[in-house]
Amino acid sequence: MAGDRLMAVLILCGVLLVAVGVVAALVRGRIAPRGRGASRRGAKASGPGRKRPLPGRERPHPGRGGGPAGPGRRPLVVHSRPPSPAWESRPAPGQIWWADVPYSDGSGSKVRPCLVVRTHPRKVEVLKITSQDKSDRGDHLSIPTAGWDPHATKDSWLDLSETHFVGDRDFRNLAATSCDARVWKSVTRLQKTGWVYDG
Prior knowledge:
alpha+beta
């Protein structure tokens, strides 16, 4: 009888030691409980087989730098010559015109001098010219006016920050068939100038 009781006490002590060890491991985080609440989706997302993309390596989206927005579209190409004699009567790259140029914010337009940089099939892309002093702006370039504006008493400033699209009907008068060579050289370094059409 005494031997059986001693054996029962030893077994009970062993069970208690095992239980204490399991509880201690749970507290220290060595064993994660896996119950019914653990979803397969969460385990899959945090597993070694799923890697999050590094910053700057996301897949490109169509129309946002990932290629043409729509299938079947052929990109327009800038050429050094017009595609046909019919285009020769239109505003040409390098010319200075008085035209109705729209404001950047779309609130209206103003007739002002502008420099043609690209001639498209239906519109013309220009850089606007202003008589306001922009000597403190790094995105403006001084442009001589004596050769095309007899009423000007000082040089004007060419806005290099952005181009504007102007319809053919909004061009008023041709001011100069070509601009200052120094100015045009600076423009061609920043802009791809010419005639824009397929091919």
